[in-house]
Predict the structure of MPN domain-containing protein.
Amino acid sequence: MNQNNIDPVEVFNFAVAKKCKRIIICHNHPSGDTKPSEADKQVTQKIKKGADVLNIELLDHLVICESKEFYSFKAFELL
């Protein structure tokens, strides 16, 4: 797959049902390149805004790949 399929509604349905106060979201890049796409950045900001409204802290968004490398939005100050 080469598209972003993170659904903020599903993220928050789960988080609210489990009464989460903090969440970390994560997805993989099968290409092996952990650098986030513009779509990744946009959906992260949507989730961040929704989390703020629901008083849920978005701790990080991780992009992982098969080589065990990862990209942390928090580490690169994109959260």
The beta strands are 22-28, 57-64, 70-72. Residues 24-79 form a domain with the Cytidine Deaminase; domain 2 fold (CATH 3.40.140.10). The chain has two helices and three strands. The mean pLDDT is 91.
